Amino acid sequence: MSMDYDFHLVYFPVRGRIEPILLRLTDSGVPFRLEEIPTATWMQWKKLHQITPDNFPFSGVPVLRTKDRSSGDGRKELVLGEVSAILTFLDEVLAGSVRRQFLGCRNVVLICISNRRKPYRSMRESESK
After folding, report:
1. Could you give the domains of the chain?
2. Closest Cα to residue 7, out of 75, 83, 93?
3. Tens digit of pLDDT per residue, the chain (129 long)?
4. How many helices (H) and strands (E) does the chain have?
5. What's the CA gap between 88 and 113, in Å, rounded?
6. What is the value of pTM for the model shown?
7. Interstrand relation of 32-36 and 63-68 (parallel, antiparallel or unpaired)
8. What is the DSSP letter of 102?
């Protein structure tokens, strides 16, 4: 089932936050494309207001763009941001538990947003009190 999807990752030419996503895709053996955006290009796009939620959810990277090739109904591509949302989606798709339609994918993003933890520094500061 995972071969029915085109996976296109967008990130900077460094590993950073994309590393677990790359490991998951590489380990699964599915083909994917990695588009590396130079930092200078990213900064220029930001100045020109080309970084929009339609292209880059939450105005950041990494971003996973995917489209279900098996659905012949011309669906738009799915654009996911945030590492935890991307990994959750990939785990479900690669395990074969997601239906061919992208039903519920918005919920994945919302769940990941609502379950955010405080930054590490804030947690440490609260422990010392």
Report:
1. 5-104 (3.40.30.10)
2. 93
3. 446 788 999 999 988 899 999 999 988 888 999 999 999 999 999 999 988 888 888 888 999 998 877 666 556 788 899 999 999 999 888 876 434 434 444 444 433 444 444 443 334 444 444
4. 5, 4
5. 12
6. 0.67
7. unpaired
8. -
Residue 89 to residues 2, 13, 31, 110, Cα–Cα distance (Å): 11, 23, 16, 12
| CA nearest to 69, candidates 34, 88, 93, 92 | 93
- Residue 54 token pair: 């339609």
Distance CA(125)–CA(120), nearest Å, equals: 9
DSSP, collapsed to helix, strand or coil, labels residue 79 as: strand
How does 13-52 read in b/e, with b if 16+ C-beta sit within 10 Å? eeeeebeebeebbeeeebebeeeeeeeeebeeeeeeeebe
Dist. CA 7–CA 63, nearest whole Å: 10
Furthest-apart CA atoms within the chain: distance in Å: 58
